[in-house]
Design goal:
Blueprint lengths: L6 H14 L12 E4 L2 E4 L17 E5 L4 E4 L5 H14 L4 E5 L5 H4 L11 E5 L2 H20 L13 E3 L4 E5 L4 E6 L9 E5 L4 E9 L10 H14 L1 E3 L16 E3 L2 E6 L6 H24 L4 H7 L11 H16 L3
Parallel strand pairs: 4-5, 5-6, 6-7, 11-14
Antiparallel strand pairs: 1-2, 2-3, 3-4, 8-9, 9-10, 10-11, 12-13
Length: 335
């Protein structure tokens, strides 16, 4: 007779295992700071995955309303998700009603199983399920190879509710509304942002990198369009694309942004400058690659020459710039 597994007991057991891990296994960087009333951020470490940082590299956190809590991204392992849940319980006993996954990348999505006991709605972009499913074995194997025991029990969770491109979904946490927007292909093909109407906080996740070099896994042209429109408009659109066109910043469909939470790096209030820095980098590599393509050049030639003047402006430049140039060359070669 097949043994019936009880999810709650399984999570309890794993939580106890985590407590028995060597001191410091999840200690570095595992704190939550209140960046605005009711909005808590667990800052990621500006590094790539490695045992010393235990996979804690992305900005993740939660928003507390009068009636419920929404989690925004869950980290790279079950371990990290359980620690985020513990931080939430240090702040509030309100139900965790929503777990929002801003996109597919493992540092943002693989801790989601830690919240199954809360029976939340898991919300993501309409393209998220397919993107996660197709990468499941690669992502899980990578976490196990890099993090070992710290990745124990990590599994993938797919969204139970989705937001389509151009759609805006409003969630009510009690006394505060969250506006979730689905974007066309940019950083990935499944990017989602979260806007809090109580504080004017836009959780843009990996649509914005601060200090750390942006990572291309979608469309450069699409990404430039999104950050250009946000920067030029100066507010965030909370009306669906089918709504009447916006005529002014004061429009009910366009809300003031007081701060942006990027996927990596510090929270920014001077967010137009941060968007401008990212836009500059992407435009530099686009211009350089188009020139090489026009001359009949190759990807290795582009990697060896394009955008190198940006090296001192970004963390992890040497780890990701060549990959960015390669991906953008493939996109622009046939435009």
């Amino acid at each position: 007779m097949k043994r019936r597994e009880i999810p709650g007991l399984r999570l309890l057991f794993l939580s106890m295992v985590l407590l028995l891990l060597p001191a410091g296994v999840v200690a570095r960087g595992v704190t939550a700071e209140e960046i605005a009333p009711g909005i808590y951020l667990r800052p990621g470490i500006q590094e790539e995955f490695a045992p010393p940082n235990h996979g804690h590299i992305a900005n993740i956190g939660f928003i507390v309303g009068n009636q419920a809590v929404a989690v925004i991204d869950t980290g790279s392992t079950l371990n990290e998700g359980l620690w985020l849940r513990r931080l939430i319980r240090e702040v509030t006993d309100l139900p965790i009603a929503y777990v929002i996954l801003t996109h597919m990348h493992p540092d943002h999505s693989l801790g989601a199983a830690a919240f199954r006991q809360d029976e939340p709605e898991y919300i993501g972009h309409k393209q998220l399920s397919g993107a996660l499913a197709s990468r499941q074995s690669v992502y899980l194997n990578r976490m196990n190879q890099i993090l070992g025991i710290m990745a124990k029990g990590t599994e993938m969770v797919l969204p139970t509710r989705t937001v389509d491109v151009g759609e805006v979904l409003k969630l009510d946490l009690g006394g505060r509304g969250l506006y979730l927007r689905g974007y066309p292909t940019a950083h990935t093909n499944n990017d989602l942002s979260v806007y809090d109407d109580k504080t004017g906080t836009l959780w843009l996740s990996d649509l914005l990198f601060v200090e750390r070099i942006p990572v291309m896994d979608g469309s450069l042209r699409g990404w430039l369009k999104i950050i250009g429109e946000l920067g030029d408009r100066g507010c965030v659109q909370v009306a669906a694309d089918s709504a009447p066109p916006l005529k002014a910043e004061a429009s009910e469909g366009c809300k003031t942004v007081n701060r942006i939470v990027p996927g990596h790096g510090p929270v920014v209030t001077q967010w137009k400058q941060a968007l401008g820095d990212q836009r500059r980098y992407l435009e530099i590599i686009a211009t350089g690659i188009r020139k090489i393509i026009k001359q009949g050049g190759t990807i290795p030639e582009a990697v060896a020459s394009v955008g190198l003047e940006e090296r001192d402006k970004w963390l992890l430049f040497d780890q990701f710039h060549g990959r960015n140039v390669t991906a953008v060359f493939a996109e622009l070669e046939w435009e």
